[in-house]
Fold:
Amino acid sequence: MAARKPTPIEMTALLTFHALLSGAFLVAYLSGDEDSYGIHVFSGYAALIALALRAVAGLLAPDGSPLRFPRPALAPLLGWVARLARGEAQARRERSPLIAWMAAALLIAVGGAAASGAAADFIPSVEHLHEALGDVALGVVVGHVALVFALHGLKRLDGPPVKALPRPSVPALCVLVVGLAVAGAMLGGGSALAAANDPARAALLTGYAAQAKAQNPGFTGFSAERGRALYLGPHSGGNVDTPACAACHTATPTASGRHNKTGRSIEPMATSANPSRFTDPAQVEKRFERDCPNVLGRACTALEKGDFITFLNSP
Amino acid sequence: MRSSLPRAALFLLLAGVVVNVGPANASQFERVAPVTHAPTQKECGECHMAFQPGLLPAASWNRVMDGLSDHFGEKASLPADSAAAIRAYLTQNAGGGDGRLIRITEQDWWRRKHRLDPAVWQRKTVGAKSNCEACHRDAGKGLYEDE
Structure:
């Protein structure tokens, strides 16, 4: 048990850790489905890194530092429960030995979920274990929240609070805000990053770049601007009803489109709105093979394909 | 990673319960066997509802699959292997009707059932006769009860 209260710097570090870990865990838990795999992996590793840093601090901090790992022990816990049962007011007010047990359970449960996730990233058969550990971790987190409220309630049992709650220090508040912002940015940035950097899409673009270079040695790279012009048209030579990609996909690539004849809904083209776009080479080639003649009246060049994807993959 | 078991179970249940009655006597139940072939569902369902194989005779399906490069005015080509698999599924599960016609909406049984005010097809929510789901909400599952 910590011998003293944390200094403002230590408090700041602990709050940052808590904000990072809780944000990352929440994002990772909610994005566990297959269609948000990129963001799930990103937030999972963020949780693992936060835990690793915490582990380093917990092992290296000198004795008595509040950064040191809690050491749950049975005797203090039993003593505390007995004193609580006897109705000792001091037992209700002091720091409960349950907190150390809770902290240990949290570190093990969330650490297990994060570590098994990292393992499953390389060994797919670990996925089932990871999913089970993730659910266990959620249970422990919910228990942790309940315990915090319960212990706080215990302290308030003795009538009106003896002293006002200490005002949170300005740096601690700043860190809390920054921590929440980081967690939020992780949600947004992580998905954008994962969407823009999909390895399958990068490989597809590399392939088109090689073809473009072979067709024209002067090729210097794809252009989102040329891609935009191709997307928006209008072109002539194809079906009169579809003079541009935008005829069905709308002028806003992040919006859902509509097949011009059947009315069938089409998922957004922009990878920021639809991360699975341009990740399946066979599907991409099939659609180019059909829709270039439908819109342009001819096949697309590798340069046009690369420009098109580059435009729709830009933020 | 979340299991999609409930959906699969529902699908199996539907597939098991629905009897392939074919359009010839579809009037009795207003239902046809749903599409159970994943490539057919995916490839045909990208641009329009994946029509159930029972809605056309095998000869019509063969004509449709022969003419994908001009599919009702649109290029809808497929890689040879998936085209062959889809053709096999459609023709093996085909229904009855006039094999010279490739439009479902020109088959006699379809026209008998759709003697509607022509203005219906112009409605923005309908758009085309091929948009079964505009009126038959569960058409994608093969259920065409009057709605």
User: Anything to note?
Assistant: The domain at 199-312 of chain A is CATH 1.10.760.10 (Cytochrome Bc1 Complex; Chain D, domain 2). Chain A has two domains: 8-196, 199-312. The first strand of chain A starts at residue 257 and ends at 258. Chain A touches chain B at residues 32-34, 127, 131, 239, 259, 261-264, 282, 286, 289-291, 293-294 (CB under 8 Å).
